[in-house]
Amino acid sequence: MKHATTIRNVPDAILLDFGGVIFQTSKNAGGVRAVAERAAMRLDRADAGVPTEQVEAALRAGLVALKHWKHAQSRRLAPAELPPREIVGDFLASDMPEAARRLLVAESSDLLRDLTRLVSSHALRPGIAELLDLADERGIPVGIVSNAHSGRSHREVLAEHGLEGRFAVQCYSDEVGLRKPHPGIIELAAEACGTVPERCWYVGDTQDRDVVAGRRAGVGAVMLTRSHHTDDPPFVVTDRADAVYDTPEGVAAALRAAGGSAEPVAATTAPRRGPALLIDHGGVISASEPDPEARRAFVAWLAALLSPRGEDPVSPERVEALVAAARERHREFKRLLGGRADGEPIAEADPVEFWRDWFGASLSARQRAVLAAEAHDIMARFGLAKSRRSLRDGMRELLEACRDERIPVVVVSNTISGRSVRAACRAHGIDDLIAAYECSDEAGARKPDAALALSALAIAGGDPARAVFLGDKPENDAVAARRAGIAERVLLRGGSTADAALDAARRSGLATRVVADPRDVIPLLATAVPVS
User: Fold this and answer.
1) In whole angstroms, what separates CA 321 from the centre of its chain?
2) At what angle do helices 451-460 and 98-106 cross, to 10 degrees?
């Protein structure tokens, strides 16, 4: 194709799609089955009784419906991306039993990650390494702009191919809430690269999403690298690319020229209303202590992310001060919400608000754009770097007792990062003893709002009169459990709350018991009856 005039101009930044540009994807024949097996194993921990075949059928039906939805969004002027929980709840698991559906919704991040990693394989396309090296030589930032249901999985794929750290910004639709052809996702990436769309090249592989998004954003040049999607759009598209190449080698040339397996279990149609254990994470499952080395590594990484070549660097010392200020703002946010009356919704802080607005208020517009695009990944990294976690003595025995008695366990946690909570439990070797995680940052509500506990009860099929909530904070855990009607509201010593406050909560009736060891809860699960 004859190059347009704009392609002969050196761009300020190059923005790349992920699949079809950086990577060529191909379907794995047994991928959906493998995801179904993993999900069925998770459901079995909660005694949800859904066979692998039923899970697989639901996933396949949901993927077909989701494909139609995606095509429809490509006709919209400014489509928003579906939240992960809505994708799972309304598409992938909509015809499953209620408890199973709720469990998979709670675990939507992992389910969508598994779908991306197991259903498709990723091969680096020819010319990408050359393009990145050439852009580095010329000081041109390269960003990623991709429709994705799991930006997390895309970051994993990049790391596995040695490409971590090669991009100035990564904008994934599930993390920024916009999906192509919405021009805003390209505008955000351009701003994060320190420029405007008019001075960018945008490289995609589809006409209905990429070409249209590029034209709507007004990018300097729209290019396509041909994939199996390129020549077969779902409907007629009137916009045209400035150039179409067989591989990304053409883009590089243009830049150079421009200067477990699980056995199925029997299905059940009768609703279960049995015992369940709802359990807090921080201070209960895990004890924590500061981890200065991990904190320093995180601060250094974030400083590097905010300091591209050619700009004055943001020092680690300044990042550390901004993190401290943002955390103080978060503490004030929690104090203001904690006193709301019963029935008032209590929302969790949004990662974008935390990093872009609280942490980044004094930073440049470009840096705030980077923070907005990368907020979810930054929060997950921060959650892992905050402290060193250790499993509390007696916790494994409690969880194993629940497993032996077929009592579902659901973690109910106020947290800045549900991903870090799951990572801690995997590191402890107890993830296989936990049915699901209801985390405030993912659900959008935080204790003492009863929403998390009520959802956890629904996941477990738990009868509130036969359920136990184990926490360590009277004002969060015990209040939320009481609002959810849970009979046994147990507080564990040794967490973040002083013994005197725990004992006061017991005397007032807010808590039903105070224990010193998680194993003390085991006899309560055997009876699981209300305490008078």
Assistant:
1) 26
2) 130
